[in-house]
Amino acid sequence: MLKSFQARLIMFVLLLLALAQLGTALAVLKSLKADNYKQGVQSIDVSRNVFDLFLAARAEQLTKGVEILTSDFGFKQAVATRETGTIRSVLQNHGARINADISLLVSPRGELITATQPLNITDTVADLVFAARRSRGSSISTTVALDNRAYQLVLVPIRAPNVVAWVGMAFLLDQALAERIKNVTGLDISFVYETKDTNMLSGASTLPSIEKETLLNEIGNIKDIITSPVFSNDEKYLSLGVDIGVPNQWGIIHLPYGPWLESYRDTRTQLIWIFTGALALALLFGIALARNMTKPIGRLVDYATQIGLGVTKEKVTAPEIEGEFGVLSNTMKTMQNSIINREEELTYRASHDQLTGLFNQSAVEFYLSEALPREQGSLVTINVRHFKRINNMLGFDVGNIMLSKVAERLKLWGHDATMIARQTGDKFLVLFDRTINEQDCFNLKQLFNVDFEVEKGSNIHLDISIGVLPFEHATASVNSAMRRLEIVSDKAREESDGVVFYVVGQDENHRRQLTIIRDLPAALEANQLFVVYQPKVGVASNDCQEAEALIRWIHPELGFLPPDEFIAVLEHAGSIQQLTKWIVNSVLSQLSQWWAAGHEIRVAVNLSAHDLLDERLPNTVAKALKKYDLPVRALALEVTESAVMKDREKVIGVLKALQEMGVHLAIDDFGTGQSSLSYLRELPVNEVKIDRAFIQFIDTNKGDEFITNATIGLSHSLGFQVTAEGAENAEGVALLRQYHCDKIQGYYFSKPLVAEDFLRWRDTFNKH
């Protein structure tokens, strides 16, 4: 809800007013509370003054009453003669008349002569008498503590004519006195003292008994409220302590704060109602204001929503609004037009090639997703052969011109085509609703036999290859259709006439290759691959001390896979290094067992071009030999000359590093590569293996015999050992021995064998 502008505007108005009202209310309440407190303090101060005046007036009244007694002649005579019984009787009678609680007679030195009650106040009275004598006072009025109770004491001297004694009357500060003071001040009065056992306040009070106990317990230390009044916990009373001049004895004035508190609460309630009413009015005002202010915004939002939904500008009319929102409306209208133009441009770019103006690959795939499956029509792919050379020789600008001209000719040829598209680079695709035949392809070829004029007087001839996929073979899947089209396109580039029609089953080989690439990791883990060893027989000693490791793969679905097939596929897919790592570890693991048993056999492993381009190969081989605790001479590596030619400098560097380690290196399939003799002297190898193509028919083909003899002689002159591959009969073996070939391998001696069979064959052969 608060995400809308209208809701936010309403909330802003309400919040602004609420803050203003709250601030005003808090200020008023704070001022009212402070004023109430100030009035309460003033009332207590007045009551305190009345309290003090009341005690002073009472002391003066009592003093006069005692002076009447001291002026009585008979009483003076009794005091002079020390008639104790008479004195006590007079004291009791006179004390009863003036409501004295205790009456006493004291000697001029402050010694207690007699009292109406047993008292232990000799020291207190003596101090008062001595103080009066020093000040030459005629009477004494003070407050004293007798048995933890506060008394107002009056002492008047008896003169005859000198002071012969002091008459004292003590009046208890009790409940009755508190009630009398309350009647005058209108406030509750307490006379309290601090009990020694609980340190709690106790004494007389005009407060109700329940409130008295609670309030006195809350006050605790009376000294804290002597200077300024404090509230009770429930703020029902405001209390102020009064020092009455007696240790641990105090008076307390209690102001009932209820009326002030009730007034404060009434005011607070009124403010709350005012605050609530103001907020309600603000809410109504805010809603009305927000609706009025957000109405043009709502119209603009609806307009923007329709633009966002892609409605055309003819169906959306910009709202007519004045002021700043009108400017925004016009801006959005301009924006809508720009969006429509931009969308049209983006839609065109998304489905068209920017160079030629033809459709692009995305447009083709979208069309096929809607059109497949279907029976009628054809897909024709056209590749410009060797177009990269034109870019390299003449530059990309000329290349782009040529591609545009190719597009124009395809439009002439495919005038009845449903779609003409440029897929990538020099590849074009034409889609027909009719069946394309060989004559159509011949016509296209003829059209391209006419040279293209790049500049005036400068012509270029382009050759094209054509692949045709009838829709009946396109399947319902766009990916399958494009894959089959790619198959015929690749095949057309390889054919001399450059025209290939798709035939059912052509993509089976492609699927087979994908299966091989996909299943290799699982096949290695499941031991579907295994190693066989073909013996290498030494001619001089007529024994077998070496072998070549060959890989065999029996696929659970595809059956036996020829090594040439899956190795070529893995090299093309970039997965060959995974296979190389596996065979190196498998061979070294087997060699570690043989060498531990005393069979010091050297086994050769074939490396691919990808392996030789890895500069980490020497370090990898060294770690593998160390892992299986084998000497370097236990392993030989064979590389083809064609693999060396991939990157001659890098490969030769890797081979030199291996040779420096002491690894035996051999050139495999020698004689079938390019420039064999010119590079042979630069290769850091130890051995040359003559390809089986020259050995298989050496006994019947004089050309093969001559090439083999020359190769052996040349290799020996360069310091290389020579191994002949593919020896299959005794006559060929005899010729190889005659030409001093170093080692021979072939079916004449043995086919490739698994490890156990190889070891048994070797033992048997070496015993001959």
Automatic annotation (TrEMBL):
The chain crosses the membrane at residues 271-290. Residues 291-344 form the HAMP domain. It comes from the Bacteria. GO terms for cellular component: membrane. The keyword Nucleotidyltransferase does not apply. PANTHER family: CYCLIC DI-GMP PHOSPHODIESTERASE PDEF, OXYGEN SENSOR PROTEIN DOSP. This is Diguanylate cyclase/phosphodiesterase. It comes from Marinomonas alcarazii.
